[in-house]
C-alpha cells in the first residue's frame, strides 16, 4: 500500500504515513458528538480506502451519513512542531487529538491540516479521532459522480465517504515554509517563486532568508537567496541567456518531452539552516490564440481521453502509487496527450506522474446537483482550495468549474444561474491568470475561453454534416443542438474561441463483465471486438480530420461500474491492442499548418 509522498511539490524527509488499520464505526443516528461518547469500535478499516470499498475491509455501500475513525500513534514532543495532514476526507470532518478538537474542514476533495504540537501527550502515546459527516442525500454539496440512490444508475457510481487519501504526520521547525507556488514565464525564460512561512510569527527584527536552487540534471540553472519580508517571498528567477547556442529551449515541458526542473528550497535564520525540502517546476506556457490552443507558443492539437478516476475495489481512492502511475502510462500508450479528469479532483500523486511522464490534465470541479446559495458557497470554497493545491503542476492546463449545466440546470431561463457560471469563470481567471478556463463544458456556454461540445452521435456521417469543412461556425451555433441543448447562451455568441469536441464516443462493449454489475450502460453499443474496433476507429478518424476542432476528448479511459464504454476494462486490461488505439488517436493531421 505504497502511496508515495502525498504532497510531491513540497517534500520533506521527516514524515510518517498514518495509513493502515484504524478503529471504525458507523453512526447512523448521529448519537455521538465527542470521542469520549464512543465505547465500542466494532469494525477495523484500512485507511485510505473508503468504507464503501472492498479494499477497506468494510465494503458497506448502504446509506451511512456519519462514521468515526480512531487510531493510536507515537510521537514525542520536542522543540519542533508536528503537523497532522489529511489528503482528502469526504465530506465534513472534525478531528480530535487526545480528546481535544484539532481542526474542522468541509469539502470532500481538498487537503487540510492541523498543528497538533500543543495537543501531544508527553508520554509519546497519542490518539487521533475523526468524525466524518457525508449525507448521501445532500444534492447541494459537490459530489461529482457519487450516486444519491442506493444502487448506481446511469452514469453515477457508488459513494465514497470518509478518508480516501493519505493521512500523515510531518515534523517541521518552529518557523517553517508552509506554502510555495511556481509560475513559469516562458517568454522571458523566468520562473516565479512564491513562499509563505508558517508557525511562529516573524517580524522585522527577524533575519529570515530563503535560498532556491534550480537544476536540470547535473546542470545548475540558478541559486538565488531572498530576504523574507513579512513572512513571504515573491520573486522571479530568470535563467541566464547563454547566447546563440540557447540550451534553454531544451527545458520546455511538453507531453513529448516532459522536462522537469528539480528545486531545493532552504530557509535560514541568520546563518542557521532551519528548514529544507525538495520541489520541482517546469517551463511551460498555455494560452488561446484565436481558434487554437497554444502550448509553449505553438498550436497544439489536444488528443484527450475522459477519465473518471475510479477503481473497482477502491472507488475514488487509488489502490496505490503504482496504480496512479500505470493510469498515466496507459493513457500515453493509447496515443493520448491528455486526460480530462471528469468530476474529480484527482490525487496529487496522479498529477506528479502526469508531470513526470508527460500527460496534460484538464481539472474539473465535481458538481452539486441543486442550485442553492449553500451549493454555490460550498463550490466556491472547495474550488478555490483545489486551485491553490494544484496551481504549480505543469500538467494542469485547463480549469473547468461546471460541466453540462449540472447544478445550474436552468441557465437559459434563470439569470442567477448564469451569474454563477460567469462568477466562477472570472474567479478562476482571477486566481490563475495563466491558464484557459471553460465556464460550462458541453453546451450552454457563456463566459469561456474554449467552447466544449458533447456529442455522442455514433453516426460519423452525421458528425461530418454537423462539423465538416462546409459548416461555418455561425451555422453551428445557430442551428445545431447536440443533446438537444443550445451551444451558446443568448448574449454570448462565438467570439472566435477554439471549438473542441470534449465528449464523444461512449461505445459500450464489455468482454470482461465486472462482478456485481447486472446491466451495462453506454451511449451506443458494440457486440464484438471487431465491431467495437471499427466503430472506434471510424469515430476517431472523423474527429481528427475535422478542421473545426482544435482538440477532442474520447469517452472514456476505462469501464466504470455499469458504464462499460471504456477503451480498457475496469481492471485496466485493454479491449483492443494498445498499439491499434494509438495508431488511430495519433493519426496525422498534416493539412492544418502548424498543428501537431
TrEMBL record:
Residues in coiled coil: none
Limits of the Glycosyl hydrolases family 2 sugar binding domain: 40-171
Keyword terms: Hydrolase
Pfam family membership, one: Glyco_hydro_2_N
Any one Gene Ontology molecular-function term assigned to this protein's record: hydrolase activity
Keyword Hydrolase included in the entry's annotation: yes
Domain Glycoside hydrolase family 2 catalytic: 290-579
InterPro entries for this protein: Beta-gal/glucu_dom_sf, Galactose-bd-like_sf, GH, GH2_Domain-Containing, Glyco_hydro_2_cat, Glyco_hydro_2_N
Signal sequence segment: none
Record has Ion transport as a keyword: no
Membership in a protein family: Belongs to the glycosyl hydrolase 2 family.
This protein's name: Glycoside hydrolase family 2
Source organism (scientific name): Ramlibacter aquaticus
Lineage: Bacteria, Pseudomonadati, Pseudomonadota, Betaproteobacteria, Burkholderiales
Amino acid at each position: 500500500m505504497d502511496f508515495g509522498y502525498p504532497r510531491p511539490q513540497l517534500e520533506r524527509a521527516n514524515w510518517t504515513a498514518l495509513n493502515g488499520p484504524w478503529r471504525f464505526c458507523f453512526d447512523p443516528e448521529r448519537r455521538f458528538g465527542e470521542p469520549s461518547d464512543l465505547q465500542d469500535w466494532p469494525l477495523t478499516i484500512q485507511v485510505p480506502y473508503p468504507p464503501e470499498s472492498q479494499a477497506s475491509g468494510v465494503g458497506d455501500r448502504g446509506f451511512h451519513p456519519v462514521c468515526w475513525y480512531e487510531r493510536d500513534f507515537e510521537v514525542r514532543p520536542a522543540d519542533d512542531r508536528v503537523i497532522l495532514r489529511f489528503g482528502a476526507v469526504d465530506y465534513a470532518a472534525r478531528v480530535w487529538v487526545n480528546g481535544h478538537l484539532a481542526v474542522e474542514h468541509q469539502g470532500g476533495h481538498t487537503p487540510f491540516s492541523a498543528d497538533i504540537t500543543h495537543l501531544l501527550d508527553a508520554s509519546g502515546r497519542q490518539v487521533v479521532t475523526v468524525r466524518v459527516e457525508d449525507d448521501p442525500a445532500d444534492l447541494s454539496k459537490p459530489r461529482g459522480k457519487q450516486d444519491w440512490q442506493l444502487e448506481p444508475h446511469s452514469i453515477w457510481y457508488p459513494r465514497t465517504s470518509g478518508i480516501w487519501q493519505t493521512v500523515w504526520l510531518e515534523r517541521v521547525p518552529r518557523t517553517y515554509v508552509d506554502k510555495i507556488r511556481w509560475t513559469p514565464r516562458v517568454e522571458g525564460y523566468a520562473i516565479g517563486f512564491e513562499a509563505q512561512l508558517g508557525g511562529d510569527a516573524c517580524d522585522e527584527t527577524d533575519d529570515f532568508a530563503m535560498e532556491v536552487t534550480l537544476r536540470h540534471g547535473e546542470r545548475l540553472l540558478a541559486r538565488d537567496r531572498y530576504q523574507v519580508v513579512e513572512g513571504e517571498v515573491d520573486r522571479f528567477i530568470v535563467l541566464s541567456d547563454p547566447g546563440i547556442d540557447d540550451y534553454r529551449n531544451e527545458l520546455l515541458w511538453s507531453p513529448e518531452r516532459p522536462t522537469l526542473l528539480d528545486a531545493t528550497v532552504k530557509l535560514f535564520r541568520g546563518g542557521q539552516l532551519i528548514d529544507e525540502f525538495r520541489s520541482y517546476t517546469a517551463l511551460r506556457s498555455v494560452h488561446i490564440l484565436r481558434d487554437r490552443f497554444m502550448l509553449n507558443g505553438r498550436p497544439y492539437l489536444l488528443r484527450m481521453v475522459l477519465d473518471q478516476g475510479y477503481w473497482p475495489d477502491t472507488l475514488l481512492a487509488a489502490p496505490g502509487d503504482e496504480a496512479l502511475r500505470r493510469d498515466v502510462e496507459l493513457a500515453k500508450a493509447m496515443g493520448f496527450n491528455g486526460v480530462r479528469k471528469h468530476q474529480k479532483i484527482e490525487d496529487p500523486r496522479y498529477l506528479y506522474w502526469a508531470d513526470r511522464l508527460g500527460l496534460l490534465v484538464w481539472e474539473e470541479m465535481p458538481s452539486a446537483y441543486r442550485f442553492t446559495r449553500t451549493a454555490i458557497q460550498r463550490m466556491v470554497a472547495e474550488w478555490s482550495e483545489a486551485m491553490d493545491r494544484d496551481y504549480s503542476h505543469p500538467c494542469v492546463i485547463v480549469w473547468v468549474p461546471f460541466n453540462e449545466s449540472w447544478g445550474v440546470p436552468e441557465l437559459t431561463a434563470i439569470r442567477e444561474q448564469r451569474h454563477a457560471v460567469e462568477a466562477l469563470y472570472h474567479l478562476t481567471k482571477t486566481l490563475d491568470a495563466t491558464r484557459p478556463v471553460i465556464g460550462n463544458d458541453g453546451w450552454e456556454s457563456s463566459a469561456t475561453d474554449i467552447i466544449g461540445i458533447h456529442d455522442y452521435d455514433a453516426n460519423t456521417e452525421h458528425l461530418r454534416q454537423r462539423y465538416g469543412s462546409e459548416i461555418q461556425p455561425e451555422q453551428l451555433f445557430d442551428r445545431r443542438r447536440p443533446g438537444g441543448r443550445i451551444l451558446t447562451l443568448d448574449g454570448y455568441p462565438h467570439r472566435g474561441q477554439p471549438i473542441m469536441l470534449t465528449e464523444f464516443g461512449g461505445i459500450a462493449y464489455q468482454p470482461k463483465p465486472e462482478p456485481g454489475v447486472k446491466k451495462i450502460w453506454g451511449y451506443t453499443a458494440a457486440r464484438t471486438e471487431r465491431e467495437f474496433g471499427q466503430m472506434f476507429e471510424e469515430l476517431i478518424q472523423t474527429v481528427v480530420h475535422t478542421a473545426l476542432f482544435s482538440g477532442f476528448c474520447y469517452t472514456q479511459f476505462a469501464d466504470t461500474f455499469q458504464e462499460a464504454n471504456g477503451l480498457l476494462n475496469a481492471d485496466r486490461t485493454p479491449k483492443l491492442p494498445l498499439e491499434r488505439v494509438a495508431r488511430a488517436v495519433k493519426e496525422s493531421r498534416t493539412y492544418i499548418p502548424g498543428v501537431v
